[in-house]
Amino acid sequence: MTRSLGFAVVGLLALAARPCAAQVEPVVTLHGADGTTLVRVRQRAYVTVTVWTSLEDSTPPSVLVSPPAVELMPGETQLVRLRARTPCSDAWRFLVTFRPEDTPAPTVVATVVTRVTLVTRFLSKVRCAP
Amino acid sequence: MILQVLVLVRLVGAGEPAVIEARYAADSVLELPAAAVRDLLGVTATTPYVSVPELERRYPDVTFEWRPRELELRITDPRGALPASQAAVLAAQRRAQSVSALAWRTISGAFGGVTADDSGRSAIDLGYTWRGRLAVQGSYYPTARRGAWAASAAPIPTVNVSASGGRGVESAAVRVSAGPAFAFASWDAPGRLGLDALATLGAVSVFASTRRTYVVTINRAGLSVQGAQGPTNKTLRLSFGPQSLLSPFSVPFIPSR
Predict the structure, then answer these.
(1) Whole-model pTM?
(2) 3-state secondary structure of B37
(3) Residue A126 contacts by C-beta under 8 Å, 6 or more apart in sequence?
(4) For residue range A13-42, what is the model confidence (pLDDT) as tens digits?
(5) Nearest-CA residue of chain B relative to A69?
(6) What per-residue confidence (pLDDT) applies to A29?
(7) Interchain proximity A83–B19, CB inside 8 Å
(8) Which helix (H) or strand (E) holds B85?
(9) Which ipTM score applies to this complex?
């Protein structure tokens, strides 16, 4: 019963959510200390970028991420540069979080309004190359 | 809040682009580290960081285009106002002086030609070049009933060796171009040796030759000055204009009549 209820909730949320409208490269390659990757959106979104030490450790290693945050308009692509200040590790993970623009609040409130904001997060692998 | 940003700085037509650690100041102005500005553009600054608007004020003829989506600062300098642009032009002149005509053929293969004039003289040329590193050419002049040959080799990009002659070696030359220096040594059959040398430091170039020729050239954006001592004359030239760079290899020439 509990499991069925859980599936139902997830299913409703999936129906209510907009289709995923962002694109991130699955692998980010660092040549020596430097690397680049692209982030694309189809809808307006606020994007934050960071690096994790590993899948289990969200502590950011000493890596300069540029830009760490940016607001993208529909259809825009942003180049992201990375520069590692410590030796590169294949355990690192590249994390991109998309937060869609806030929908405007209704002007006439006649009843209780529930808003679901879906924040999408992508984890990409980091590959270290000479 | 100051934000570090990795920017690709590209000076169009001069040098290799480089990724540098710039920063966004609190007023969202892009600032470049002074060391990178000196290395890439040849511009010196007294502060640790130089803002793009400040560079625009110092060099109004230069276009600084900031592309935030590509994290690229594209710099276009059509008038050669930046020291790095001038240095690139002078370096290209030195490279051009260091190769013979044969070495311009960079694709391997045979080449040749036939020439004739209305007096009945003709010439036939045939040669072979290998990747711009080695080239040989033979010529035959049917009217004069004699032939000639030429060969050129560039074992490394900065060195070029050439020789030419008829029945034997009649002339030979070696050109070396490395960074701010250039040297050219020549020999011909009567046994005459010649040596030309050039050294460049910043905007100043000094050229000297065993042909009793000395040239000092100062090339600046908008104004260039050249003084020369030839075998018979001393000459001074002032050149102004948007692209006023003078070749440091040649003596200014004034026809006598």
Answers:
(1) 0.63
(2) helix
(3) A27, A28, A29, A30, A35, A51, A88, A89, A90, A91, A92, A93, A94
(4) 555 444 445 689 999 999 989 999 999 988
(5) B3
(6) 94
(7) yes
(8) helix B83-97
(9) 0.74
